[in-house]
Design brief:
The protein has about 450 residues and is mainly α. The longest helix is centred in the N-terminal third of the chain and has 18 residues.
């Protein structure tokens, strides 16, 4: 995945092909991956955990504002909350059981299970947490879930996200969908899908000390809520074991949350000493299995999607297509599988076929924006800029604030020959960011259209 500050050059001749409405496959894929946003914040605060002064990048109000502005974008990048209200209600209940035991009880904690297949969980600074269906399908009891949530709440309470030094922090958090890389294949925007999807790999870059502190806090919270301390041990053992079997599938988790045998040993030592009295506390395995049964029935679909995404990250497109076919055979109406199949087919220049899967994804989950953005990119490739613009307008109604959509609207209007509105959208995009390949293209088009010298 590129450094967000690294310029990415648009495919050669893209501006001319947009003007002639003759986009190529690599253009479609490049356009789909283009979006970025940035800002800068700084400050100091007192740690609510240790009472010591810490260098932070955000005030508490700014932490909440980041959540409100950026969390919906990231959750959409991870394909939105699962269309399973009872499952989302369940994780919210477990979150609520932990909240009375944290230091920052007044933060607006919220949790949702996301359609993403990769194995991870993450939090924004103000407590907006996402858990992928990939990790939900692997956990074995409620104590492990409480440990996972407690760990993420530990990051919020220790203000680890806020400590990541001003501009460096927000440049990472604000990036949405910047999986763009140079190269002539044009497949770069999706190359990161397998092990490092979207901006979630950029959300958390915690140090080992931060991870140790979040572990200790999470174990403290879950014990206070009535779970056995062994829940944290079990969670770590599960993740380490999965990594040994299929390391590629946990690449994002291990890069954003450094894992080690030492962390397992520490959690086990605390469970056997400080928290030895919790040994017989209920792990609530039956309740976890009952409340997540609908999600766990999707395990074959999730596994096939994981394998397909990993193959896509390696540009093994026929193998990826086979995996997505297997996922769809098991669950034809699965949003994530349909969207990934559409992306896989688009990478093979089968735009019309890809469009059908994108339209199925849109029908299955009409409130989720990623199928709209992909549909718009495909329609640009199929020389339908007006239809692409309509998709982007629908996207804006569902998920406003994505700077990449400003850019794609400019491209669509450019393809329709509407120079002035196109220039207005390119200029609006450049007011958000002037870095990256999309910004380079917008600047070039403004010059070509006579609005810049």
């Amino acid at each position: 995945m590129n450094d967000p500050a690294t310029p990415v050059t648009a495919p050669a001749g893209l501006a001319h092909r947009i003007h002639r409405n003759r986009l190529e496959r690599r253009d479609v894929l490049w356009l789909f991956g283009a979006s970025v946003g940035a800002t800068a914040l700084s400050g100091c605060a007192v740690s609510p955990v240790t009472g010591q002064r810490i260098l932070v990048g955000l005030s508490e109000e700014q932490e909440k504002a980041i959540d409100a502005r950026q969390a919906p974008q990231q959750f959409s990048q991870d394909l939105g909350a699962v269309l399973d209200a009872p499952v989302n209600a369940y994780v919210s209940e477990v979150t609520a059981s932990l909240q009375p035991h944290v230091q920052r009880r007044g933060m607006p904690y919220s949790t949702r299970v996301l359609n993403a297949n990769y194995v991870n969980a993450y939090t924004f600074p103000g407590g907006a947490m996402g858990i992928t269906r990939g990790i939900m399908a692997d956990m074995q009891d409620e104590a492990q879930l409480a440990a996972l949530l407690g760990h993420e709440m530990g990051h919020v309470n220790a203000r680890h996200a806020a400590q990541r030094q001003g501009q460096a922090l927000v440049a990472q958090v604000a990036v949405v969908g910047m999986a763009v890389a140079a190269g002539d294949s044009g497949w770069a925007p999706l190359a990161g899908i397998g092990g490092q999807i979207g901006a979630s790999a950029l959300l958390a870059s915690y140090s080992r000390d931060h991870e140790r502190e979040a572990d200790a806090l999470g174990q403290q919270y879950l014990v206070a809520a009535g779970y056995p301390a062994q829940g944290m041990v079990g969670l770590h053992q599960l993740l380490l074991g999965s990594h040994e079997k299929q390391p590629g599938l946990l690449e994002t988790l291990f890069s954003s949350h450094p894992m080690s045998a030492e962390r397992v040993a520490t959690a086990r030592r605390l469970a056997e000493t400080t928290y030895a009295g919790t040994r017989n506390a209920p792990a609530q395995r039956e309740r976890y299995m009952d409340r997540t049964a609908s999600l766990r029935r999707l395990k074959p679909t999730i596994t096939a999607c994981q394998n397909g995404e990993l193959a896509m990250s390696k540009k093994a497109l026929p193998a990826a297509q086979q995996q997505f076919e297997a996922a769809l055979k098991h669950t034809p109406e699965d949003y994530a599988a349909n969207l990934r199949m559409a992306q896989c087919l688009a990478a093979q220049n089968r735009l019309a076929d890809a469009r059908r899967y994108a339209e199925t994804a849109r029908r299955v989950y009409p409130q989720e924006a990623q199928a709209m953005k992909l549909g718009a990119s495909l329609k640009l490739g199929l020389r339908e800029p007006a239809a692409a613009l309509a998709e982007l307008q629908a996207y804006d109604r569902v998920l406003p604030g994505d700077p990449g959509v400003l850019f794609l609207k400019g491209v669509s209007l450019d393809g329709m020959g509407q120079a002035r509105p196109a220039a207005e959208h390119y200029a609006a995009f450049l007011r958000v960011t002037q870095q990256g390949g999309a910004a380079q293209h917008a600047t070039a088009r403004l010059k070509a259209l006579g609005y810049l010298r």
